[in-house]
Amino acid sequence: MKIALVSAEAYPFSKTGGLGDVVGALFKEFIKAGIDVTVFLPFYRTTRQNFFSSTVNAGIVYGVAVGSTKRFGAVRTARVSFDEEDNLKIEASTEGNLFFIEHNDFFDRDELYGTNHGEYLDNAERFVFFSRAVLEICKVMNLKFDIIHCHDWHTALVPLYLKTFYKECSCFERTKTVLTIHNLGYQGIFPREKLEITGFGQEMFHIDGFEFYGMVNFLKVGLFNADIITTVSPTYAKEILTPEYGAGLDGVLRKRKESLVGIINGIDYKIWNPEKDPFIVQNYGTGNISDKQKNKQYLLSFTNLKCSIQNPLIAFIGRLTYQKGIDIIVDAIPGLIEKGVSFIFEGTGEAYYENKIRELQNNYPSKIYAFVGFDEALAHKIYAGADSLLVPSRYEPCGLSQLIAMRYGTPPVCRRTGGLSDTVEDGVTGFLFDEYSAEALTEAVKQFCSAYEDKNRFSRIIYEAMKRDFSWSNSCKKYLELYKGLINEGKTGII
Hints:
Elements: E1 2-6, H1 18-32, E2 36-42, H2 45-51, E3 56-57, E4 62-66, E5 69-82, E6 88-92, E7 98-102, H3 104-107, E8 114-115, E9 118-119, H4 123-141, E10 147-151, H5 158-163, E11 176-181, E12 189-190, E13 211-212, E14 215-217, H6 218-225, E15 228-231, H7 234-239, H8 250-255, E16 260-262, H9 292-303, E17 313-317, H10 326-338, E18 342-347, H11 351-363, E19 368-372, H12 376-385, E20 388-391, H13 401-407, E21 412-415, H14 418-423, E22 431-433, H15 438-453, H16 455-467, H17 472-487
Parallel strand pairs: 1-2, 1-10, 2-7, 10-11, 11-15, 15-16, 17-18, 17-20, 18-19, 20-21, 21-22
Antiparallel strand pairs: 3-5, 4-5, 5-6, 5-7, 8-9, 12-14, 13-14
Helix pairs in contact: 9-12, 10-15
């Protein structure tokens, strides 16, 4: 079985968020499992700076029609492997399993998708080029894949291209496609005029094609044309069939619901392991949970919070956005501080909420520490030192922070939605609430505080949380079952 992963990002080569983590982890786990897997990525400026010397020019030039213009590109390749200690090894090779799509006009930029002033205005052109470049390279190099696994809107046109412009190409005659929705809130929506750059005419601007409220929608086309659609948790797969969570595409998804599968994301237990984490002050595991307290002591000292070691310390790590529930956190904090809770924030996001968090810190300097930014080492220290993590998302396709928190014995307080409800067991490994409101969040934090005061009960919750297995190996097995079922007479496996 030969698999191609096609994505706009994959860690450690490029990353802006969870998409990069997930695709990078899938690539790694497939390699470790002995699967013949290749990943296709844009050759961004940051990728060039970090990995140029580890790649080689494959020696081919290809042309891609982007509207009425033909754009020419190159490809750089490398061979990726992992040693016995799980360390990444990259070797420049024309027989590679890592393909970087090179086009300086499109990808040699400061950021992946846009700047603080907004998305790049030619993102439609950039990812039309990328999607078609992948298929052109396969055609020129006669690369044959059983499965092409596309990720999010950036690559959602690939299934349609395979059924139209490339349907006569012999290298794709047995290829099946999988499209994963990482977050339905991002769909690749562009003005109607952008349809021309896809290579299709106005005959494709209709309700079962590109048309979406007078605009062009790339993800919608992918949902209609992929052989299988996956998303990143079983509950989210059900939620997006409803108007509340479907972001305007619930009707399309209901048409394809027999081909929709939810598979929980995982986390990399080599990176997120409190027993060996190099960033934390004191390593610990299920056999010596009490050592976790030394990380809390360090965190209180580092942040200058005037919080007794006996009082609860709650953290938030993530994007400071409306989706992540930061608005109800802001509303709930004054009342929770009165009950003796202290808070640590780390993250960036919408300027309004960044300023709100700074304002709260100014109002409660002894009870709130806010780091507006992202520091990897600090994040590890917070996961290890906090008593709980807030994840009150308005919606959450899967979520990774709650998985990390449980691994570190930091029971999360989460809203019962998407992957949060699939991974957190209320009162067993964390705490869940239903209504999206500051009042419901406050009540859930009170439930956490009640458990926290009962040391025996809280120790059991920590232990149960740390025991749960959310490693990528489990998720990858489910993807492989899905692939095998799809190859085998088009069935979807035994998920």
